[in-house]
Protein 1
Amino acid sequence: MGDEGFPSRERGLGDTAAARHRAPTAFMLLYALAYTGLFVAFIPFFSLLLPVKVEAVSAADRVALLSRITLVGALVASVSNIAFGALSDRTYRTRGTRRPWLLAGLIMLIGAYAIVNLAGDGTALLLGVAVFQIALNAMFAPLIAIMADEVPDDRKGVMAGLLGIAQPVATLAGVGVTLDFVSGKAAQYALVCLATAALILPLLLFGREGALPVPPTAQANGGRFQRRDLALAWAGKLAIQVAGTAVVTYFFFYTSDLLRGEANGQARARTIAWIMAAATIVAIPLALACGRISDRIGRRKPLLAFASAGMVAGLALMAGAGRWEVAAIGYTAFAATYAVFIALHAAFTMQLLPSPAHRGRDLGFFNLTNTLPNVAGPLLALLLVGGASTFPILWTAAAILCALGGGLLMLVRGQQ
């Protein structure tokens, strides 16, 4: 399908190459800020705030309750991301923008945090997380499509490097909400909401879509081979995301158990937050360097292979760790290379999409690789994890998945 129905994005032949490359820089920075804002919205929530809330609501049933909440949230996220992606496609065709959905999602997100804060039992908490997932995906679906719309292929690696900063910065935000001056859960939730809004609003206020004529990526292969490549890219990302979800969801409990006896509950949470923040020091320059290198060499696969190997190594350290310090080193290796993988895979995938007319919808189906792991990850944990001594089994299974995911991507023919 062509671009019928899209707002005109033509430019005269007098446009210079310098203008075409200069123009998106400010937009790319605004975009990276907004993308980081979405990570700030959910990384502290799922890695720190929600586990603490689950323990407060039902300490004896914490793993089962968190798994049920995660399962329902994943189902809601799967449907809502595809729906909002398709809605943003329609808005883009008729109005030339996807940004109104970002504003609607931001308003819903603040309401979701209020519901979670007031929740006094597992049912209310589950409802709050479901609303949270709807709000988050109302923003994520159009925002991811905006990158495919606006960023040329020869800058997608740099853009991916900038996006790789999002998760580490969001982890630092998790450290911020555990500091002593942030008193009470309501204050923590309010701080996250304020930070999210501060990062997203600049794109809403100053970003302008359609500034550049970004043509759809030319596909060297078509039909059966294109579908094969998309399936491999989808399956590879799914395997990695199942592993990542397991780590993000249960690392808090795992490390908290390793720290038990050395610190109280609040001190354990702060230590875990600092462990997560340590990965930021490695991940930020690594993500930027890998994105830049992938653009310069015109290849994504070597960097994706590097990231996969780094994740396997980090998980192997975690699986064999007897002390929290060793677990922290393993987590740092995993988290830094995981951030590189997720960012570069986004650029890799966008260059495989078949039609610019349905980018939001198609990326919504790719987003199933983000949401289905929230089903598979908890199910895997329920099967494998019975206590602190069995967490290494989960990390070993995650390492196998990372190796499998990286291997599947190496089989894609349409991208190097």
Protein 2
Amino acid sequence: MNLSDSLPSILVVDDEVHSQAAMRRTLDEDFTVFTASDADEARALLERQAVSVILCDQRMPGLTGVAFLKEVRERWPDTVRIVISGYTDTEDIIAGINDAGIYQYILKPWVPDHLLQTVRTAAEAQTLQRSMNQLDLELRTSTPVLRQRVAHKLAQARSVFDFERIERGSNSPLNAVCSMAERVARYDLSVLVLGESGSGKELIARAIHYASPRGGGPFVVENCAAIPDTLLESELFGHKRGSFTGAYEDRPGLFQRANGGTVFLDEIGETSPAFQVRVLRVLQEGEVRPVGAARPVPVNVRVIAATHRDLEQRVHEGLFRKDLYYRLAGVSITVPPLRERAGDIAPIARRLVRDVGAELGRPGATLNDEALACLMGYPWPGNIRELRNEIARAVALSDGDEIQAQTFSLRVLHGQAGLAASGQAADQALSLPSSGTLSERLDAIETMVLRETLLRHRWNKTHAARELGLSRVGLRGKMVRFGLEG
């Protein structure tokens, strides 16, 4: 299978080999990653390979990152462009945001989770933009019958984010969360979504948007932690042509792009006082003033904010403005972490296997019972994002369509074994027996010990046999006897 046929392609342009390697490690589970050391090498690759997103270092031999991305904008305009810099040359980059059409600016040292999420969002934005451009063209040039068909396609796209489509168990704590969010969606109130990173806050925010009267309008996402203060005004409010060096045309800001729809401000708890003041002013006045504009521009948006921080505590510590907190928290919704939603793991895992399997060209991929029990026994500190990455790894490493426990990473196998040994998974296969004859209970305990040891050693029979004081033949005999031989 050629993974480049199913995964979005990313080009990393950086003259430092260790930086290339670090970004490849961060991105290669979700993307096909190409690398280049300078503009010439990158240009040659782009001539023969389409890519979704370019990550380009600002300081390189020859052309700077901004200068190269300006050329990319002219020759490959559909590519999403991101510049990375560890220097204070923000003036050149600010000018290049419009000139080179830069989607995002990332400061060094970058954080792997933030980099991965930024690139994911960029790739999704490119896919959605292409789809919307095509649909818009069809709407403007088609007959009434075709326009009706296209409108139906848009309705189907919105239904993807329906509350009923959010995977969860029958008695999930998310039922109450979704019920409350659905009731709130119909009213034009600000919403603050709280919860750990990767727990599904953006999914809830999108569902609120599409269930609201604004559902036909844009849904614009901004990762607040990723915006340097030097870029705030242009990013949030836009700018007018000629307002600064490199501003060759008008550029709408975040709130203007979301006019009539919803702005989702992710990681609002990480923002600086300058950011908080500017957002508060927009919420209070309902208007923005683009950089270089003579008068403010009215905007009509709904704001949904999210954070993994305790904002009340940050208000108490003087790190977050109290007036902005009360503006944002018209309604607060807390998404529980995955470890508190054990009943959700199975349906989410099965859905992810289907989705990831389709992406990787393995549409028949399934989880066997032991693999599912292993997933349900791990606490998932990284929540759904970590679960998705683990399943993507397992699908890629599995020899057949059936995913087995030994394809999971060591931390998941250890986590599952630890929970079972401590009695926290009493309703799973590794729990201690509470009934039966002495012989039956001893067999059950022996089965539990064998399975726990095999899981911990990732089904390496030699290592497991050595730990248990058995020969490989003896271990294999016991595995056959207790039905553990796959």
